[in-house]
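About this split. The held-out portion is used to measure sequence recovery: a designer receives only the structure tokens and must propose an amino acid at every position. Recovery is the fraction of positions where the proposal matches the reference. Here is one held-out target exactly as it appears in the evaluation file.
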């Protein structure tokens, strides 16, 4: 997973083969990631096309390490711009993927601007924070507010989430294969960058 960029630099200097399971623009770093942009864009655009105009975003909007999350935010912005021709940044919150941070962010949106019709969260992991904030404000999910998420992680929630499926097991397999290739050929000049497709699970 993502770590501090300084650690990448130290590993490269020490000529230790490594692969990260995350998107990364540096050509000296081998990576395996999920291509989340197309699926995220299509899902958000379909929601907007269906008439749901108040769509909140809770997740990373900029980061030096979570580049996949940045792709999700770019897809959100592009879909909003293509369909609505504007972005309501009062419904956007930049938060680290944590249930507690998501709770605080969504509670702030609800208090200041009322409930959005749909909230897009960048990971299923933060969903409990959204449910908590909505419940405290007197709103039910999905009756009053719908959630679109990404990852299809197992959660302790009583209902399943509409989510963009990230092929985590295949990413792990490809990561191991890529690492073994780098170990077998440590002088490889061009580091592999694999992007696996994603799909929507309603």
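Reference sequence for scoring:
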């Amino acid at each position: 997973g993502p770590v501090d960029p300084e650690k990448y630099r130290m590993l490269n200097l020490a000529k230790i083969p490594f692969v990260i399971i995350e998107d990364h623009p540096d050509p000296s770093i081998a990576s395996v990631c999920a291509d989340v942009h197309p699926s995220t864009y299509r899902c958000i655009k379909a929601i907007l096309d269906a008439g749901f105009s108040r769509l909140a975003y809770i997740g990373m909007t900029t980061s030096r390490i979570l580049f996949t999350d940045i792709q999700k935010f770019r897809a959100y912005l592009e879909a909003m711009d293509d369909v609505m021709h504007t972005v309501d940044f009062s419904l956007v919150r930049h938060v680290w993927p944590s249930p507690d941070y998501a709770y605080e962010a969504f509670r702030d949106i609800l208090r200041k601007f009322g409930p959005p019709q749909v909230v897009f969260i960048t990971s299923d992991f933060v969903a409990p924070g959204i449910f908590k904030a909505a419940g405290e404000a007197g709103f039910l999910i999905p009756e009053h507010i719908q959630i679109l998420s990404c990852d299809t992680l197992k959660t302790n929630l009583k209902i399943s989430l509409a989510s963009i499926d990230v092929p985590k097991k295949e990413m792990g397999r490809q990561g191991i294969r890529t690492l073994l290739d780098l170990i077998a050929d440590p002088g490889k000049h061009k580091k592999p960058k694999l992007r696996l497709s994603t799909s929507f699970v309603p």
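Annotator remark: The radius of gyration is 18 Å.
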